[in-house]
Fold this sequence. Notes:
The protein has helices spanning 3-17, 54-60, 62-70, 85-88, 125-128, 137-140, 202-205, 279-282, 333-337, 352-356, 371-374, 425-429, 501-504, and strands at residues 208-211, 214-217, 309-310, 313-314, 430-432, 438-440, 462-463, 466-467, 473-474, 477-480, 507-510, 513-516. Among the domains are: 22-149, no CATH class; 169-265, no CATH class; 379-445, no CATH class; 455-527, no CATH class. It contains 13 helices and twelve strands. β1 and β2 (214-217) form a beta hairpin. The radius of gyration is 51 Å and the shape is flat. With 529 residues, the protein is low in regular secondary structure. The chain has a two-stranded antiparallel sheet with strand order 1-2. 14% of the residues lie in helices and 7% in strands.
Amino acid sequence: MSLKNTGLLIGLCLIILSPAVAQISPGELSAAHAHLEGMSNCTKCHSLGAKIANEKCLACHTEIKAHVDQKTGYHASPEVRGKSCITCHSDHHGRNFQLVRFAKEKFDHGITGFKLSGEHAKKQCAECHKPAFISNPAIKKKKFTYLGLNPECLKCHEDYHQKTLAQKCSNCHDFDAFKPATLFKHETTKFQLTGKHATVPCLSCHKVSLLNGKKFQEFAGIKFQSCSNCHADPHHNQFGPNCSSCHTGESFHAVKGIANFDHSKTKFLLEDKHKTLACVQCHKANLTDPVKHDKCTDCHKDYHDGQFMKDGVVENCNACHSTKGFKETSYTIEKHNSGKFPLLGSHLATPCITCHKKQEKWKFREIGIRCIDCHENIHKQFINEKYYPDYSCQSCHNNETWKSVSFDHSKTAFILTGPHEKQTCRTCHFRKDASGQEIQKFTDMAANCTSCHTDIHAKQFEVTGVTNCLRCHASNTWKIVTFDHNKTAFKLDGKHEKVACIKCHKPVIKDQKTFVLYKTNKLRCENCH
Length: 529
């Protein structure tokens, strides 16, 4: 051995034996790599004279290598492909250092090959990334990992259909909710939904039961080759097993097989509504059995409960109705006007139902003919009955419109003159109380002006508690027509006759009210001059 080589060997031994050997490692490895501590393990991750190679990382992390080789998952995505492992997963930062570290809330799960949508987007990572959903034993034993999940639905979710349908759930379901199966199209099956079948609830055919002790809804294996697989034969096979020879999928009531049958050859001609009836609605036992049909009540119940019965027999319904339908009536206004209550004015536009169907059923007898039999008497206890005997509303109102009032006010103690004639009844007789509720008053109303109008003169002209405005004003105009200043304590003469009222009678404020002061009590010259 040369002197040079000997010196090199001695130097290497000194380094190995020296306490400073700890300085060769840049720091402790993380807990996951703690088993690789020591000089003898360096080359398991590091290559002499070179950077850490991905091949060495993947030699241990075979589960990631499998994804990279298959070009699937996050580590095969464009965001990661071509990067060195150490770029994201450096070590020698201490035992508690997290090798896998990223912002979960900002992570784009779509780059893993499984985009989170619908309900999946609302889940927390740990709800899916857990050992229960990992099938690979090697990955399953890890304390925590984001690897090992299979994107197939049934790897995480229970197979509700218990292997009776295809394993690919996305054929029928989306990621928003298991129910309803929005992607399922019944037209892709062997049984096309047409006619009434298109509106039948799924549960009517696809029953829910228990299978293997679990709730189960049957979708596969349902018999549909014959109508009788689902429907009972009301004819008891009298017309054979082929229902479509008479019926369509639109409705059992739409009979086509006997469309050529001429019902007019019988004693009962089918017209209007009778044409749309299913045969079994009249021929309840057998199509060939005779059916009573002389009177409407042979088939129809007397809806009016004997209101139109005469001598113990219900009168013929066609006096008001026809075969076009019970809702239509041929009872005319002329017929109504021949009775006890002629339809006049607004009553002509009132629907029959307003008066004749106040309860559950129609009523045409003894419903009353007075106004108060149908209309609420809002004036009861407010107007003296002498003004409308027997509560006859027509004393004031007419049939044309309720707002038109023809009451003769001169019959009262207050005759309407001037602007009072132009007022509506509500102006004076309907007021609002302190709570804002409208009340009416017709009796015991004071006739003096200030009971309705504000005394703008602040009671200056009040005599024994009453202000008589007519001493100065006329009822047909508010202008002063009767006031004579010469009858006051201050007679106007000379220049005073031409002085404007406002020069002497000025506005004053008293009790927070502004009014013109007329009673000044200033009668001496020096009071003004």
